[in-house]
Amino acid sequence: MSVSLSTHVLDTEHGRPGTGVRVELYRGDEEIAAGETDGDGRIGSLAAELDPGAYRLVFHPASPYFKRLELELELAEGHHHVPLLVSSYACTTYRGS
């Protein structure tokens, strides 16, 4: 079994999806996947067929304060969904389903 990853960005300040947000996935210093959120704020399949291990998930939201949000993740086998909730001056994330 391998690892797969999806994400979702929500603009909680305006109550709508975070569209057009650039998201990058790195293993070490190598960018292995990238994309932009769609009209629903989602990237349904950012990466698939990954090996388990340490990764960095980097978001570039349209915020006057947060220009780059980076998460270090330890991905085990299976599917991982990592949403980002963001507003001008606050953000949070969690492991979704």
N- to C-terminal distance: 18 Å
CATH architecture type: Sandwich
Strand content: over 45%
CATH class: Mainly Beta
Count of extended strands: 9
Taking pLDDT < 50 over at least 5 consecutive residues as the criterion, the unreliable ranges are: none
CATH superfamily: Transthyretin/hydroxyisourate hydrolase domain
Shape: globular
Helical stretch count? 0
- H/E series: EEEEEEEEE
Report Rg.
Answer: 13 Å
- What structural class do the secondary elements suggest? mainly beta
- In which range does the helix fraction lie? under 10%
CATH topology: Immunoglobulin-like
The mean pLDDT is 96
- Report on the biggest sheet: 5 strands, mixed
Query: What count of structural domains?
Result: 1
Provide a descriptive summary of the structure in words.
Helix content is 0%, strand content 62%. The chain is mostly beta strands and 97 residues long. The chain has one domain (3-93): Transthyretin/hydroxyisourate hydrolase domain (Immunoglobulin-like, Sandwich), CATH 2.60.40.180. The model has no long low-confidence stretch (mean pLDDT 96).
